[in-house]
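Tokens as discussed.
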């Protein structure tokens, strides 16, 4: 009998159940939905991660830019403060206060727009005089502006307690005033302007009967020595042109343009000038017949600059002189509106405005542009 080489395995009901085929509890559609849901979740997580990383990167860049471009408010320094009339028996009756202050923009790449600036002088917290200082102006980065102000008509009588205290302080050799400057500023970074910020600067100063501030007397002396003067504008030539040539040889008065030559000179010895854009208007009688302009420029001391300005579109002037003879001359008014700033050493003053006018005679028969005309335009600086 052959030996039995197989190992007997006892089969139980539990083992038989394990060998049965597996049964699915979910359909194929269910598993497909689970796969799609898993992919959507992964894509959503990737998008959120990218967005958060980008947001973090932009936040870091913005923080670095803020640290590098963080705007600083302008810095003011008192250069001179004087009061005329401190030796009056009744105190400051009809005294005059003059002061010079520098405004420094210490920002590296940020400019500052100033609205109109006012200065107020206080004694014992009582305002004794207020004056407007500057027109609205723009101060570029790393720039210093010289601000000069005067307060007239100041009155502080000795008939009250503060007046008596003022006289007593004056007898002691010194009087304390407070100067306050107020304005509204905006910062400019490239093409972006910030919101408006209210600005005020205050400084305590002590003056005596010699009317000299301990700090800054030298600056006042230099300012008096330099004493800057306004630039001069002189008309040196005018030419009426028709049909592209001088109208002397043509009776047809189709006036195409008028050429004007203006000489701008800086009469100062040690003071340069930054000129703003100039706007020139021609008038024939009370009628505006042409407007033109030239760009602003920098002019060194004792320098002279020639500017040639062309006026086109003269239909109204053409109509007004259509019946005039070729030998007739007409009287034109020249008006110049512009502004400028002085530069004294490394300091720049605030903006000054000019409104200049003058009358020139133009020949309809053709007058050369360079014919030795020398008409100085006159008006005031305000």
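Sequence:
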């Amino acid at each position: 009998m052959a030996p039995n080489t197989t190992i007997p395995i006892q089969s139980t009901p539990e083992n038989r159940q394990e060998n049965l085929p597996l049964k699915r509890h979910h359909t194929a559609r269910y598993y497909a939905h689970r796969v799609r849901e898993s992919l959507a979740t992964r894509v959503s997580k990737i998008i959120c991660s990218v967005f958060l990383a980008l947001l973090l990167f932009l936040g870091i860049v913005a923080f670095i830019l803020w640290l590098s471009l963080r705007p600083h408010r302008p810095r003011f320094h008192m250069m001179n403060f004087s009061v005329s009339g401190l030796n009056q028996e009744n105190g400051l009756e009809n005294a005059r206060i003059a002061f010079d202050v520098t405004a420094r923009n210490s920002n590296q790449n940020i400019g500052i727009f100033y609205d109109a600036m006012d200065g107020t002088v206080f004694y014992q917290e009582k305002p004794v005089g207020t004056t407007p200082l500057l027109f609205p102006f723009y101060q570029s980065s790393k720039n210093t502006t010289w601000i000069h102000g005067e307060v007239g008509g100041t009155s502080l009588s000795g008939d009250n307690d503060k007046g008596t205290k003022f006289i007593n302080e004056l007898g002691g050799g010194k009087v304390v005033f407070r100067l306050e400057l107020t304005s509204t500023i905006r910062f400019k970074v490239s093409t972006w302007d910030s919101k408006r910020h209210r600005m005020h600067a205050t400084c305590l100063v002590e003056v005596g009967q010699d009317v000299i501030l301990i700090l800054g007397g030298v600056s006042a002396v230099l300012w008096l020595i330099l004493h800057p003067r306004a630039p001069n504008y002189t008309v040196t030539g005018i030419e009426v042109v028709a049909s592209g040539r001088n109208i002397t040889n043509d009776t047809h008065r189709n006036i195409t343009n008028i050429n004007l030559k203006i000489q701008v000179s800086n009469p100062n010895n040690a003071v340069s000038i930054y000129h703003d854009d100039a706007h020139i208007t021609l008038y024939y009688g009370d009628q505006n017949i042409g407007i033109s302009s030239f760009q602003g420029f920098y002019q060194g001391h004792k320098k002279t600059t020639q500017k040639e300005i062309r006026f086109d579109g003269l239909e109204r002037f053409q109509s007004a002189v259509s019946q005039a003879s070729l030998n007739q001359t007409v009287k034109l008014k020249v008006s110049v509106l512009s502004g400028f700033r002085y530069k004294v050493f490394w300091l720049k003053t605030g903006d000054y405005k000019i409104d200049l006018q003058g009358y020139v005679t133009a020949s309809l028969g053709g007058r050369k542009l360079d014919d030795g005309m020398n008409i100085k335009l006159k008006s005031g600086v305000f």
